[in-house]
Amino acid sequence: MSQPKSSNGAGQPVTIFVVDDEPMLLDLAAALLQPLGYNVRTFSDPRVALKEFPDAQPAVVVTDYAMGGMNGLDLVRECKRIKPDQKIVLLSGTVDEGIFEGLTHKPDRFLVKPYPVHEFIETIRTLVAS
Questions:
Q1: Which are the contacts of 111, defined by CB distance < 8 A and separation ≥ 6?
Q2: What ranges make up the beta strands (E) of 44-122?
Q3: pTM of the full structure
Q4: How do strand 109-112 and strand 39-43 relate by DSSP bridges?
Q5: What is the tens place of the pLDDT at every residue in 9-58?
Q6: Is pLDDT above 50 for 4?
Q7: Looking at residue 82, what is its pLDDT?
Q8: Would 122 be classed as within a structural domain?
Q9: Phi/psi of residue 102, each to 5°?
Q10: CATH code of the domain in which 115 resides
Q11: Percent of the residues in the chain that have a pLDDT greater than 70, as a whole number
């Protein structure tokens, strides 16, 4: 398997935003992605992530669906409104892909919680490379 693209053309680490209201899942994502060379920024509040999104320009945004204050689809919509080609992964243990049928702004990938670690990593690698 090829190495992930973990740095941009200027040699800076590729930034991945991970948004989830469960601290354990934020820690897990960081533990999986940081050793691969990614700059992982975690957020328990999607509104904070959205505020930092325009300046950070993450390669990929990973977001949970069910969160307080703003759900994952709201975050998908706002990120894609700001940057239409933004790569986004939606995670959920409560809904399936039918939740975004017919929506204009959709995630690029959907993973069901609990997701297999290899599937999560490969999804990030694929989206960063695309």
A1: 89, 90, 91, 119, 120, 123
A2: 60-64, 87-92, 109-112
A3: 0.91
A4: unpaired
A5: 566 899 999 999 999 999 999 999 999 999 999 999 999 999 999 999 99
A6: no
A7: 97
A8: yes
A9: 80, -5
A10: 3.40.50.2300
A11: 92
**What does the block give as tokens for 113?**
């919680």
- Give the range of the structural domain holding residue 121, as residue numbers without chain letter: 15-129
115, 113, 80: which is closest to 95 by C-alpha?
A: 113
Total structural domains within the chain = 1
| Assigned domain for 1 exists | no
Residue 10 lies in a domain: no
Q: Which residues of 81-112 are buried (b: 16+ CB within 10 A; e: fewer)?
A: eeeeebbbbbbbeebeeebbeeeebbbbbbbe
What pLDDT does residue 100 have?
83
Rounded distance between C-alpha atoms, residue 33 and residue 36, angstroms = 5
State the Cα–Cα distance between residues 116 and 52, nearest whole angstrom: 29
Is 3 part of a structural domain of the chain?
A: no
